[in-house]
Design brief:
mainly alpha; 19 helices; globular
């Protein structure tokens, strides 16, 4: 029996051994998830205060909630496994539900009217970066022998917007939770130093604020890290960085749809089998993408009707709720994590993601210098 078959059989045996589903165990599992999520939020605000005025201040300010959530989830996984109750509590670890709900809420922060100022250059840069970086990452992942699903996650994360894109891709290609956790960890690993390196390089290269903002927004893989790096450069750079990153975020849905169709038609289609029908493609289609788009449209219309200043508190509440659901998702990823598939992957994904990051930095600098040379937010 192969390693993959052994792992599948082990998971099936464990699932069969789990009780049919005591409501009390589900309540207990939810309590664990919510408790770890609450601790994540506490650390997110407390660590910067603890490290203020020390040599670790920059690090404390830059660590994002996925890091705390995944680490706490893994620690919880270890404790629950040692105590022998993890399998009974597992039905409450609803990673997929938490992730999809969080992504739908993410759409509310993608106000389509915000990108009007730099719509043309931002869309042009997004299309170039996504095409080039995704193709390179997919190609290199294949060259070093990575599985198609992990290649899809790494390529989406590197080319679009980090963790959110990886989550959308994971739903589209039905990737394993271990692969998503690994990809999310790589995104954070590479994004943290970029917060400080990118502004320093922008200053060294003598880039205008607009070009610097487009460069930062185009290649740092998380929205929070983009905001932090853009703020270090200045207000003008921050505005452009936010517009560029928002544009890339808005393309998550299109990439997810393309991946779902590609895997159904090419990757997982058996030789000689009939082509998938429209109904089968619809069943595979990640329907939360429609919720993401709907939330974006509703938010745009709402802010246009009441004004951005009046509507900002409402959007802030939605964004905070989104953060809670994503924290619940990352905690659940840690709680459900299995190391078997990652042992097979080894260091190759790190090399692929690192190479893709270098390509992204170079291509983004070229496109930003070309497309944003005459853009001004003054």
């Amino acid at each position: 029996m192969s390693g993959g078959e052994q792992e599948t059989a082990h998971e099936a045996d464990e699932e069969a051994a789990e009780p049919a589903g005591s409501a009390w165990w589900v309540v207990g599992g939810l309590a664990v998830v919510l408790g770890l999520a609450g601790l994540t939020r506490y650390l997110e605000s407390a660590v910067p205060e603890w490290t203020e005025g020390t040599g670790l201040a920059n690090l404390g300010d830059s660590i994002e909630f996925p890091v705390y959530a995944i680490i706490l989830g893994l620690l919880g996984n270890l404790v629950l496994t040692v105590t022998g109750v993890r399998a009974r509590l597992a039905p409450a670890f609803r990673t997929e539900f938490f992730i999809k709900t969080g992504l739908v809420l993410l759409g509310a922060s993608v106000n389509l009217s915000v990108i009007v100022t730099a719509a043309g250059p931002a869309i042009g840069q997004a299309i170039i970066l996504i095409t080039v970086v995704f193709a390179f990452t997919w190609w290199l992942g294949g060259k070093v022998g990575l599985g198609d699903k992990l290649r899809a996650l790494l390529a989406s994360a590197a080319a679009i917007c980090g963790v959110s894109a990886a989550i959308a891709a994971a739903g589209a290609v039905q990737a394993k939770k271990e692969q998503l956790a690994y990809t999310a960890s790589l995104v954070i690993l590479f994004a943290l130093p970029s917060i400080f390196i990118m502004p320093a390089l922008a200053s060294a290269f003598g880039l205008t604020p607009e070009v610097a903002g487009a460069w930062i927004g185009g290649n740092i893989d998380t929205t929070a890290a983009v905001t932090a790096a853009g703020a270090l450069v200045g207000e003008e750079a921050l505005q452009i960085a936010a517009i560029v990153k928002t544009t890339q975020n808005a393309l998550i849905g299109l990439v997810a749809v393309a991946l779902a169709a590609f895997f159904a038609l090419r990757i997982e289609r058996k030789p000689g089998s009939a082509r998938p029908t429209a109904r089968q493609l619809w069943q595979r289609f990640p329907k939360f993408v429609l919720g993401f788009i709907a939330a974006s449209i509703i938010a745009t219309i709402y802010l246009g009707a009441v004004g951005e200043q009046a509507g900002e508190p409402v959007i802030d509440v939605v964004n905070d709720l989104r953060t809670w659901f994503l924290i619940l998702a990352f905690v659940s990823i840690g709680l459900e994590f299995r190391a078997a598939s990652l042992k097979e992957a080894g260091w190759r994904p790190i090399g692929v993601f690192g190479a893709a990051t270098v390509v992204n930095v170079v291509v983004a600098l070229g496109t930003a210098s070309l497309l944003f040379a005459t853009v001004s937010v003054q």
